[in-house]
Amino acid sequence: MRSRKSRLNEVVTWIRTAGAVNTLWGFLKSPMAAVYLWGPFLTIWGLVGGLRENVATPYLLVTCTLIFGGICWSATQVGSLRDRFTDRYKKLRVIFDRAIPSCRADVTFGDGSHAICFRLQVENESTSKLEQCEAWIESADRFPNISPFRLFWAGDTVVLTSGIPRIIQSMSVDLIKNVPRFV
Q: Whole-model pTM?
């Protein structure tokens, strides 16, 4: 019967092996592998194959250079395409709940004019941080002829002007995954 310590060592070894395999798989799929592994490997393969077939050295060097450059360029393009695809599908969740008292308020100003103030919760559901996000109202069901206008983010920003603190409203904020912000 094995001791607990030996079973624990087996589990630790298994976890380390799984981590190493995961790291290796991530490297093999990366654009960096194209430059440091696949490009040189296929270039040497082309060079050895060409030498076996007695291909003239100048043609062989040009071919191997094109192989290496093509692999590196392709990996760069695929990485760029992947980044553009993931940027396009970043997701935001916007919540307006009338049940929360501070989400909607009818306000009467000192001059007798009325306004409806509302608060929306915005949450980033993508994996990356969204920087300098602005909030805009483009249209409203009740007022179809309204032109787009910019909203303020809740939470004051304190700015020091000549040593005097001044409070300003944020026009843009960074949205971090699963951290709700209000507009």
A: 0.44
